[in-house]
């Protein structure tokens, strides 16, 4: 195989060893696993939109290899990844990479755990290495892009994350460089998602989208393991990923610079609020203004938000965003989340129930929330996309304003282990299976000491 970007990424994944991963990176992988599992378990109780995916996986039957979370059912690995992948983003509470504008671990965690069960025993160190490598591949692809893929009609998060998932699963299955390149090729033939979901308020696809890349990652790696040959250059080829999705607008060096020396999972952010990451600085700023100035939301005449033009998707169509019809649309609504934060002082999972979506006071204030894009800010640079300002105009004519540059939970403002464990416990208490406090504590202990686990599949089997 000739030297290429595709070869370099495949060689990196195949050569990643736990012993060569920095300690901080290992800890971040465990934190991502804890956070991702908690959010997915909460979705089993709070997101009925996921139920068809669970039912479909169970109804297919087949070899009982891997667990469908919170059901006790065991199905083939690819179908478990499919069902559990649907849970990963359903509450929009999972981790994110702010600069790459991705949720790289959402499909990767369910796929990796499904494979750990199906091909047991795979130890905790191997899972940590796989999660670190998979996250790195996905984030580097996102960071390399020089054009927003939605300009061409694509919705990038699940498309890009599919390659990270493939990398993690391939690493767990010990694929060699050639096989990993084949697996990436197979993923290129399957990974897709239309940006039309942004314009369809009743669509379920935005919520369950990670079912597909989770299944693709497992399927691609297993087929490559069986000898299916792919392309020489699935990423940089003349009809590879970057040519097809970005029309060639990418920076090659972003894919290979410090590859294997620095891991992008180190820059993962953990969400304090269960909504689109692009809403977070506005939630925080609005709640802080109301609290510090002791403002009665009923006395607010208008709320003006300023930010990147990419965040227009969180504010338009205006009527849809001011009165969202579904929980997932509300989570992608600046008017709704900001109005909720101003009335409640925060935003929680309880604020996206059917009853909460019909809260008259929140909807009335949401009708007075307006977003304007700052043309000087980039639509691709994470720092510009996530920075924003909130200005409140009161009915007596007073104005107060606050700008926040870094959202809470980012590497610059990191969540503590205590905060992540508290979030995990709260999420688990909402699971359909209603686990006991003792059981939840045992999950925390097992995940946070993952490097000592001799069979990582035990984690999924216990859920």
Give structural attributes:
two-stranded antiparallel sheet; globular; 463 residues; alpha+beta; 22 helices; 8 strands
What does the model show?
The chain has 22 helices and 8 strands. The strands form 3 sheets. A 4-stranded mixed sheet has the order 6-5-7-8. A two-stranded antiparallel sheet has the order 1-2. Strands 3-4 form a two-stranded antiparallel ribbon. The mean pLDDT is 96. With 463 residues, it is of the alpha+beta class. The radius of gyration is 21 Å and the shape is globular.
Give the secondary structure arrangement, pairings included:
Elements: H1 5-15, H2 23-46, H3 51-59, E1 66-67, E2 74-75, H4 77-88, E3 96-97, H5 108-118, H6 124-144, H7 156-172, H8 177-188, H9 205-208, H10 211-225, H11 241-246, H12 253-256, E4 268-269, H13 280-292, E5 300-307, H14 318-322, H15 327-331, H16 334-344, H17 354-357, H18 360-366, E6 369-373, H19 382-386, E7 388-394, E8 399-404, H20 417-428, H21 437-448, H22 457-461
Parallel strand pairs: 5-6
Antiparallel strand pairs: 1-2, 3-4, 5-7, 7-8
Short description:
With 463 residues, the protein is of the alpha+beta class.
**Cα distance, first to last residue?**
42 Å
Helix content: 40-55%
Q: How many beta-strand elements? A: 8
Summarize the helix and strand pattern as letters.
Answer: HHHEEHEHHHHHHHHEHEHHHHHEHEEHHH
Q: Order the strands across the largest sheet as they lie in space.
A: 6-5-7-8
Rg, alpha carbons? 21 Å
Low-confidence stretches: none
What structural class do helix, strand and pairing data support? Answer: alpha+beta
- Count helical runs: 22
Shape: globular
Strand content: 5-15%
Query: What's the average pLDDT?
Result: 96
């Amino acid at each position: 195989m000739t030297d290429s970007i595709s070869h370099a990424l495949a060689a990196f994944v195949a050569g990643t060893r736990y012993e060569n991963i920095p300690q901080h990176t290992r800890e971040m992988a465990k934190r991502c696993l804890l956070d991702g599992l908690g959010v997915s378990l909460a979705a089993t109780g709070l997101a009925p939109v996921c139920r068809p995916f669970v039912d479909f996986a169970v109804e297919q039957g087949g070899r009982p290899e891997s667990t469908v979370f919170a059901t006790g059912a065991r199905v083939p690995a690819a179908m478990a990844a499919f069902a559990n992948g649907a849970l990963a983003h359903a509450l929009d509470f999972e981790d994110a990479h702010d600069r790459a504008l991705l949720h790289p671990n959402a499909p990767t965690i369910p796929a990796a755990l499904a494979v750990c069960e199906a091909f047991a025993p795979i130890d905790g160190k191997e899972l940590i290495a796989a999660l670190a490598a998979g996250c790195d591949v996905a984030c580097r692809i996102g960071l390399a892009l020089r054009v927003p893929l939605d300009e061409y009609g694509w919705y990038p998060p699940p498309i890009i994350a599919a390659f990270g998932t493939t990398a993690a699963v391939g690493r767990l299955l010990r694929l060699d460089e050639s096989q990993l390149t084949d697996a990436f090729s197979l993923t290129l033939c399957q990974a897709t998602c239309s940006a039309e979901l942004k314009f369809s308020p009743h669509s379920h696809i935005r919520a369950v989208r990670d079912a597909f890349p989770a299944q693709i990652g497992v399927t691609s790696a297993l087929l490559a393991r069986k000898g299916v040959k792919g392309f020489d250059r699935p990423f940089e080829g003349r009809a590879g990923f970057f040519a097809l999705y970005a029309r060639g607008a990418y920076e090659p060096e972003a894919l290979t610079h410090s590859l294997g020396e620095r891991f992008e999972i180190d820059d993962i952010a953990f969400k304090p609020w269960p909504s689109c990451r692009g809403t977070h600085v506005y939630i925080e700023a609005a709640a802080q203004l109301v609290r510090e100035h002791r403002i009665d939301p009923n006395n607010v005449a208008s709320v003006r938000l300023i930010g990147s033009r990419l965040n227009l998707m969180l504010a338009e169509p205006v009527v849809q965003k001011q009165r969202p019809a579904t929980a997932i649309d509300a989570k992608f609504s600046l008017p709704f989340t900001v109005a909720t934060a101003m009335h409640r002082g925060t935003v929680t999972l309880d604020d996206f129930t059917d009853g909460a979506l019909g809260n008259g006071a929140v909807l009335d204030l949401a009708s007075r929330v307006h977003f304007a894009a700052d043309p000087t800010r980039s639509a691709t640079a994470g720092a510009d996309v996530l920075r924003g300002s909130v200005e409140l105009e009161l009915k007596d004519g007073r104005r107060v304003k606050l700008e926040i540059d870094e959202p809470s939970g980012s590497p610059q403002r990191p969540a503590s282990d205590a905060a992540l464990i508290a979030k995990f416990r709260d999420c688990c208490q909402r699971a359909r299976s209603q686990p006991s406090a003792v059981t939840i504590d045992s999950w925390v202990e097992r995940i946070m000491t993952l490097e000592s686990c001799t069979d990582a599949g035990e984690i999924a089997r216990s859920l």
